[in-house]
Design a protein that fits this description.
Layout lengths: L10 E15 L2 E14 L9 E3 L5 E4 L14 E2 L6 E10 L14 H6 L2 E10 L3 E2 L7 H5 L9 E2 L20 E2 L14 E2 L3 E13 L5 E9 L7 E4 L11 E4 L4 E9 L1
Antiparallel strand pairs: 1-2, 2-5, 2-6, 3-4, 6-7, 7-12, 8-11, 9-10, 12-13, 13-16, 14-15
Length: about 260
Amino acid sequence: MFYWQDGVGNSNANAGSLRLRKRLNHGISTGGTFTWSKALDDASTIGTGIGVVSANGKITGATSVAQNPFDLAAEYGLSSFNQEFRFIGDWLWELPFGPQRRWLNNPSLASRLLGNWQWSGDWTIGSGLPFTPRILGSPTDVNSGVNGTLRPDVTGQPVALSNQTIYHWFNTAAFATPPLGQYGNARRNSIVGPGQLIFDIALTKVIPLKESRNLELRMQASNVFNRPQFETIDTVLNSPTFGQVTGVGAMRTILMIARFRF
């Protein structure tokens, strides 16, 4: 068996972004960037698909395989990294306590403990990445030497659901098994996966020491509201979990850091 690859992929991408920034004033700064984009191609990367097996039986790489090698136009669809919109915002607030601040600006124990703290954070809001509906284990697919490249037929029903749940993320009735010996007409990356909504915060205090030395204390929390970040959905038509969310990202993590700078 041998594998042959050719650089015949086509892609098209368009994007626009808007960035706003309020510079530090009265101890407060904030900003954000909104990006809208759309990327289309017929092969998003060479690093997906079936494994390339070397002579010693080890998988040495991967290749992107088309459903029908004689109809590459049928592979044209959303790029696997396409994200319709994404907003990233951030803020910084120098708390009004301590030297040269509004309150507790006298040389006292309370000023030393509560002064020079900064509260910062960021949040990310984004639409979901696309997934491809597939059929696994089809004799036609296996006989060709690959598995997982075939796609189902579309039934004409809408793919998206208005009331998505982890057990029914998209309309499974929108896809059906194609007639024997025929390729499915479902588009590649035609199912939009879960979006993003992540908030991170941090409290930071810098304690000046002698000369250029200082001690930084920092407590930070990722995904501070502990909101589940769904990442993977099952899009295999003949799978018992077809249409369900099958993967979740990291939950809330809290990290405390002490750093001595010199």
